[in-house]
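re: ur msg from earlier - yeah i can do the magnesium ion complex, just paste it... oh wait u already did. ok heres what im feeding in:
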Amino acid sequence: MKNILIFTKLTVKEALSRKIFMFFSGVSVFILVLFAIIFLSTDLEQMLPLLSMSKAGNVNLVYELVKAIKLFIVTPLFGIGLFLSVFSVASFIPNMLEKGSIELLLSNPVSRAQIIWGKFFGGVLVVFFNLAFLIFGLWALIGLKFAVWEPSLLYSILTITFTFAVLYGLIILVGIITQSSILAMMLTYLIFLIISPVLNARDKLALLINNDFVNKIIDVLYYIFPKTSELADITVTTATGGTITDFQPVVTSFLFMILTLYISIIIFSKKDF
Amino acid sequence: MISVEIKNLSKVFESRFGRTKVQALNNVSLNVRSGTIYGLLGPNGAGKTTLIKILLGSVYPTSGSARILNEDIANYKIRAKIGYLPENHKFPPFLTGEGVLRLFAELKGVNGKDINNKIDELLDLVGMLKWKKVKVKKYSKGMMQRLGLAQALVNNPQLIFLDEPTDGIDPIGRKEIRDILINLKNEGKTVFLNSHLLSEVELVCDRIAMLDKGNLIREGTVEDLTTSKQIYSLKLEKELSPGLLNAEIFHTGDATYQIKVNDTAELNSIIDVIRAHGINIISLNPKKTSLEDSFISIIEDSNKLTQKK
Ligand SMILES: Nc1ncnc2c1ncn2[C@@H]1O[C@H](COP(=O)(O)OP(=O)(O)OP(=O)(O)O)[C@@H](O)[C@H]1O
Ligand SMILES: [Mg+2]
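and the outut:
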């Protein structure tokens, strides 16, 4: 446990030393300042009548407005946040495996599994804090402006971090096998942008393809691959006050993460460096 | 007491689909006694680094076994008592010299309280105290090497493995490092050293092993290895006719030769032949062989042997 913690700490330090994380935090600060300025320069009393024209009577207008703002925030946040996070952790494993550095790490009284867990938790922790800073900030600004302190937006800290952790498992696995950060990133973006959205639409695909065997394969693939599309939907739903109706994407993605980490540890433990 | 015990260790590296195989170590056995400095010599690619990596857990042996400090090498906990300076090591570039030592102290499980004093003491020992707060990405090669040595000592190890410790270090620094090694030995520590710099090995090592193409070809004290063949420089009155002598003899100048013999009996029989042909000997001087000479001749001999097979 202590050893995992040492590697977690080291990974956090590595992350903080990277420009991309500075950029990430810079973007977060910028967004917060931007929202603060917008909120300060708009008058709630003026906005409400505008909204009331399009909406019927007795709904809580402030609440609807807040919901719209959350929706507006959370969708790009999911995409951009994950994009930057993946980008910033992709080189962790390849860097660690460089000749001259890995021998030194392995010559310590630590097991190889502990090293992988440390890397994993370190990356997840950093992304969590970055997201927490940004999302908590936005939530507080919204609360101050509209006096709506309903916590749903904060859930997206957890859902986005979770989605990141799932992708990070894959990044670690590809990093261990290929020692290439580019490949790890490409594969992750491929899943994120193409594989998951396509598999998510498998009902429509089935109509198009009309071949039982192919559709079975697509079904199997659907359950194997991490479900970033569904996790994006879940993130939006929970952030705007809805509840998760189907936990299957969460569970299967979680299993995918455990599996990639497990295989990573096995391969890493057998390799010569 | 034995600190390193290697039994019939072999390593074959296979490429991913088994297309190429490299026999990096072939049935190597050797023991290192506690409290000595042990040198491992060999040409590039001989398998020296591979041997150390196996002992420290980053490479797995194909067959054979090894124990360090009386524990099987598979028991990674024993590495708490071991120091290691790999060849061409890299430290996390975002850490300072101090940060590097702190990291490895933590990894070795050194108790938190004494770390600060220990770090200053070690940085001072390797002449890097001034650079304590500087990020290692700004270090020169020699500075990295010095920090590497400090790192290898951060847990006050009983057994220290150094892979080319003086690589990239200036002559003064090398002398300093030799002194450090001798001090370690005087404190009862065991040092295992890989080196190309034979003259240095000669100066500090108690025993030496020579590795070539994965095979252990010689093992012994520096003296054993340097006196295995004697070389004499011979000056004659006139040139020898070729093929006269059945010995290892090299023409080095005007009627001067170098002869390599196994013992004085062989030397005397050569003199007998020369005298029997009525050639006068002007001078005959023994040449002290350096480790480098004997290294070269041992490697050459072993190559000849493998070629004959
Ligand atoms: N990870 C590896 N994968 C495949 N082959 C390897 C690996 N490491 C070493 N080798 C091969 O094993 C042999 C021995 O290499 P090693 O690094 O042990 O030599 P060395 O004696 O340390 O050489 P040098 O003096 O150049 O440092 C070489 O032929 C090398 O190519
Ligand atoms: Mg080497």
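cool cool. The radius of gyration of chain B is 24 Å. ping me if u need the other ligands too
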